[in-house]
Amino acid sequence: MADKAQLVLEDGRVFAGERFGAAGEAIGEVVFNTSMSGYQEILTDPSYAGQMICMTYPLIGNTGVNFEDVESRRVFAGGFIIRSRSLIPSSWRVKQTLELYLEEAGVPGICELDTRALTKHLRENGSMAGIIAAAGENPADLVNKLKKHPPMTGRDLVREVTCEKPYDWRQGTWRLDSGYVDFSNRTDAKNIVAMDFGVKQNILRLLADAGFNVKVVPASTSAEDILAMEPDGVFLSNGPGDPEPVSYAVETVKKLIGKKPIFGICLGHQILGLALGAKTYKLKFGHHGANQPVKDMATGRVEITSQNHNFAVDLQSIEDQIVPTHYNLNDDTNEGMAHRELPLFSVQYHPEASPGPHDSVYLFDRFKELIESCV
Asked: pTM for the full model?
């Protein structure tokens, strides 16, 4: 028999369940993800730092865990919330169960919870802080503990996920016959610097596939140091939380604009928007999943995209500088922009998928074409 557990939200709503994964309490902003698979990539996405993830798909863990499909050096999600766990994983690549993976990562989870009711509550009331705790704990005491927990807005989570020192990336995407491609001996690649705000590894792999040698640098790296590396372009990565507290990166990007071609994804899109003078704002419950429809405003083409963000860019204040390139068909929020004159563009969604569809992979080739046009 599994130990009884509870999820208590900051508004006092209590959801009963059973503990799985690591022992102990977990606190974070509770968001829901609509992906049907890819839980391993989701758990290791640094953009989920400070959050606990509720999966809307009812059965999780059925393919187990392998050691190739991670998106970063560790699990960054603070807690995992599911309806039913699969006790018998089935996959030719499986190495261990999801539960053991969470135990070893020190990440508490809760299962046998009504995730449909929780998702509906978050959609109606917005993302909010929650705590996974033992069933016997007093919910009122847990709510008081949540009130002392720092909110997502105004918190710099990038410092918690960025790399400690620069490193080179030469690995391409996974192939069925050979695994991950090694581009270490390539001599004809363009050189780019990737600012690590919480970068996913499949972004780096697709940059390598597109013909780039990538130098990944910490988020605090100065514009002067980046320019001293003489890159052909600069990439601004995804990352967690509110972009406004990451003011040091915004100032760096301001100094890079017009000096080098720039491509941004997710938090990188938001930081680029702030550097150009735009405002950002928090969405009610964010976009988290592998099935978000986005329309290309130039071609009319609709892409199904993978997304993970709680903040968005308001482009009204910089309409004289940029052209909106994509928007979300669910709520009309901005999903992409390009400068009218300077060589830079960005998207709010995740063209690297992992998990998700590959409709937007072309954007990595577009970045290469932009760089080549500036030579």
From this structure: 0.97
